[in-house]
Amino acid sequence: MKAVYFDLDNTLYSYDHADAAAAEAVQAFCREQFGLEPEYTHQEIIKIMNLLIDEMGWKQAATHDRLIRFSRFLQKIGQPVFPYAGIMYNLYWDTLIQNMVPEKGIYAFLRLLRQRGYYVACATNMLSAVQYRKVQHLGMGSLLEDMITSAEACTEKPDPEFFLFCVRKAGFAPEECVYIGDNYRLDVLGSAKAGLHAILYQTPDLAKRHEGAPAGVPVICDYTETEKNLDLIDGLKIS
Ligand SMILES: [Mg+2]
Question: Pairing relation of β-strands 3-6 and 177-181?
Fold first, then answer.
C-alpha cells in the first residue's frame, strides 16, 4: 500500500454529536426569532435537503450547502433571506465546529502512517471551505498531504469516479490505496467498486447508530490499537 485516504465526518471527528448540537442551535434561533417549534424547523429542513437532492442530483456537493437550505427555509416561512440565512449559516457551522471531538487516537495514528511513508489524505463529500475549516480547527492540517472534496471531484461518494479522481490526482493506482470511512454504503462499497482497498471505521459508539459491515470486510474500531491497524493496512495486497 502506498496511500491511505480518510473520510472526514465521523471518521476523523464525531460528526453526529456536533451536527445535533448545531441543528439544535438553529432550531432555538428560529423559535426565538420566528416563534417556530423546533420539531417543525427540523422536519422542514430535512424536506428541503431532500428536495435539493432531487433538483440537483445526488452527485452535487452543493446539496450540502447550508446557506441554500436555510435560504429556502426562510422563503418557505415568509422571512427575509438577508440577513437571516447568513446568521443561521454561521450559527450552524460555528456550533458544529465548537462541538467537534477528534476520534480517540487519530492524531497518533495519522502521524504513524506518515512516519511509515504512507501518503495520507482526506477525501470527503462536502463543499471545500467548511471542510478546510474543520481540519484547521482540529489541528490536523500538518498530518494530511491533501484534502479532496466532492466539490473538487465534481461528484460524490459512493460514485467510484470520486475515488478514482482522488487517487489519480496523487498519481496512484486504485489498488495501491486504502480508503477508511464510517459509512458502509458510501465509503466501503464506493471505494471498493473503484478498486481501492476499503476499511470500515466503526467504534462501539458509531455502531449504535450506523449500519455495520458484512463478515469479511476489514474494520478499524479503535485507532489506538495501533499494531493491529497497521498490520491490517500492511497486510492488504496489491493485486
Ligand atoms: Mg463519514
Answer: parallel
What's the 239 CA to ligand 1 centre distance in angstroms? 27
Is residue 239 one of the residues assigned to a domain? no
CA of 34 to the centre of ligand 1 (A): 33
CA-to-CA distance for 208 and 169, rounded, in angstroms? Answer: 35
List, in sequence order, every beta strand (DSSP E) within the chain: 3-6, 119-124, 146-149, 177-181, 197-201, 219-220
Model-level pTM greater than 0.70? yes
Residue 201 Cα to ligand 1 midpoint, Å, equals 9
Look up residue 212 and give its three cell numbers.
455495520
129 and 211 in a common domain: yes
Q: Which residues pair with 199 in a beta bridge?
A: 180
The answer to whether the peptide bond before residue 80 is cis (omega within 30 degrees of 0) is no
Total structural domains within the chain: 2
Q: Which of 40, 63, 98 marks a domain boundary?
A: 98
pLDDT of res. 237: 79
